[in-house]
C-alpha cells in the first residue's frame, strides 16, 4: 500500500496522484502476468452495501462503503462522485467531511455556508495504489453547531445525508493468471465480484442428453457458489472472444475451436481461451472423457474434488458420490428436526454484534423448507439471549425484535445491577457495566415463510439529564448471544400443491432432496441453445436454493419420459416437450404451442377454488408468450410437474429473468404464472393435491376442521367420551371402596 497518496476534488485543489482421487501434473514455466486494457464500471451506493441514503448524525457520524476487486483484475483508476447534503445550522469553520480509503485519509471536504442545505457534488480522484482485494471507503462527518463545551451529540442540527446518486467509477485491467486448476473456481467465479455470474458453456453441436447432464451438474455447482448473485449460462458452439468459458468435449463430439490431444480418461484442463488475445487473460476450462460416462466423472470430480487439483491438467482416477442424502437436508436450509442456534445461521459471530447508540439491526437470515405445516400449534418458540452495555438508570433503551420486517416485541433494557455478581459469574471477563437478558418470543407461524430474516434492533438512549452533564461517548455495545435458538421440531411436512411460489423462491418440491435425487429434467428431443441455456440456468438456480450441486439429477428427452415416471418432473416445454404436455391433456392449466394458447380460466371469486367454475379458452396469437405451469404428475399421485413453457424457445429467457428479479419473483404464484414482456400474472385454475405426510390423528383433525358441522359433532362426541370415561372411573373407584 502506498502511503501519503491522496484523492482530490476535481473542481477544487489538485493533489498527488476429498471426494475424488486426482492425478495432477504440475505446470512449469508459467509466463508472468500481463494486464489488458482498462475497463470502467460504475458502482452505485446499493452495490457498495448501502440500503438507501447514508445518514450521518452527531452520535453516529460514520458511513462505510465496501468495494471488492476480482483476483484477476487490478485497479488502474478510481473516481468517486460524492453527492451529499448537510445541515444549514453549523459552525462551518469547524465542520467538514473526511473521506477514507482503507483507513487512510484521502480527502477533506469543507462545509461552506453558501452550499448548506443544498445538494453538493464532489468528484474525488482516488489513488488506485490504495486498492486491495477488499476495500472500505469511509465518510466521517466532523460537525459542530456551538462553541459551548456542553455541545450535545444528539442535537438535530448535526446531520449530513449521502445521496443514493453517489457513484464510484472503477477502472480495472485484467491480469493474465497462470493456467492452474488450483485457482478454481476462479477466474470463472470470484467471490469478490458481486455482479450476476454469467459463464458461457461451449458444447458440441447436437449434444446428447449425457453431455447435457454433465454440463448441468457443473452449472448447479456454479449456481451454488454464486448464491444471491444469480447465474446464467448462455450456450455457444465456439469459445467466446470476450469471456471465460467452460467447454465439454468427447473424441467424436468436440466443440469447434477446441483442440485437445489424446484423451486418456476423465480429464479436467484449464487453458488460455483460444478465441481471445493472449494478453486478455481469458481462460477455457475443458471437461473431457473418452465416453459419456467419463465426461460425467470429470464433472463430478470438478464439483467434489476441485480443492485437490493443481497444475493445468488433472486426470480423474475415481469418483465416489458418497452416501445418499436425507430429505430436507439442503445446506442452505436450517434443520427443522431440532432447535437451531443462531451460531449455525451466521458465518461469523461478529454479525450478531452492534455498536453505537442507534446501530443498524442485527440480522439473522434463515431459509426453511416451504412445506412446514403447523397443525398443532400457531407459533414458533424463539429463545433470545442478549447482552448490552447497560444504562445507569431506567430510560428509553429498548430492543425491538422482529421477523420479516414485522415487529414481534419490544423489550426495555434494564439498568445495570449494582452488585454485578450474576454478570461476573456468567461473563467473568467483562466489566460490571454490562447487563444480560433473555426472552422467549412466540413467533406467529403465519409470519414465517421459506426465506426469513430476524431483526434485532438495539436503541441505547442517551444518559444525559441536562445540557451541561458530561457528553455521551460512543462506548455502547450490544450483542445477540450465538446460543439463542429457534425450534421448528413440532412442525410436519405437509402442504397443498401445486404452488409455484414455493418453486420460485426455494425450488420446492425438487430441492426436497438437495442433490435432486427425486428429480428428472425433461428436455426436447432436439434442444436448441435457448433450451439448453434454460436447462443449465434452472439447475444453477437449484444449486443456489439448496447450496449443493445436482449430483443425482436425471435428465431425459421427452421421448423417454416413461423411464422417470416415479420422479418429480421439471419440463423445459418447447418443441417435443410441448407436444408431451399436449399429450397429457387439456386438463392442464395452460397449453402453449406455436401460434396458439389454450388456457383454463376461473370465475373471479373469493370462494374456495374447488367451488369455482372452470372454463377453457383457445386463441391464436402472434406475440410472445411464456409461462410457469404447475400440476400433479400424470404418472404418480403426489408427485409434481413444473413446466417452463413458451411459444418459442427464445422466450424462455423471459421466465429466467423473472426468477432472477427480486422485485418480480414474488408475483409467481398459484399453478399458472403467465409472463408477457414485463407483465407477470399469477393464477390458480387447476386442481389441488397434497404432498407430504401427516400422522393419522393430525390428518383426521385437519380434514374435520374444514366442516363446522363435523367440528361441532366431533366436539360433542369428545365431550361425551370424556364424561363417560370419568363416570366409569368414578364408579370403579366407588365399588373399590365398598369392597374394602
From TrEMBL:
<keyword id="KW-0997">Cell inner membrane</keyword>
<comment type="pathway">
    <text>Glycan metabolism; bacterial cellulose biosynthesis.</text>
</comment>
<keyword id="KW-0812">Transmembrane</keyword>
<dbReference type="Pfam" id="PF03170">
    <property type="entry name" value="BcsB"/>
</dbReference>
<comment type="function">
    <text>Binds the cellulose synthase activator, bis-(3'-5') cyclic diguanylic acid (c-di-GMP).</text>
</comment>
<comment type="subunit">
    <text>Tightly associated with the cellulose synthase catalytic subunit.</text>
</comment>
<feature type="transmembrane region" description="Helical">
    <location>
        <begin position="709"/>
        <end position="730"/>
    </location>
</feature>
<dbReference type="InterPro" id="IPR018513">
    <property type="entry name" value="Cell_synthase_bac"/>
</dbReference>
<dbReference type="InterPro" id="IPR003920">
    <property type="entry name" value="Cell_synth_B"/>
</dbReference>
<comment type="similarity">
    <text>Belongs to the AcsB/BcsB family.</text>
</comment>
<keyword id="KW-0973">c-di-GMP</keyword>
<keyword id="KW-1133">Transmembrane helix</keyword>
<feature type="compositionally biased region" description="Low complexity">
    <location>
        <begin position="13"/>
        <end position="37"/>
    </location>
</feature>
<keyword id="KW-0135">Cellulose biosynthesis</keyword>
<protein>
    <recommendedName>
        <fullName>Cyclic di-GMP-binding protein</fullName>
    </recommendedName>
</protein>
<feature type="region of interest" description="Disordered">
    <location>
        <begin position="1"/>
        <end position="37"/>
    </location>
</feature>
<keyword id="KW-1003">Cell membrane</keyword>
<keyword id="KW-0472">Membrane</keyword>
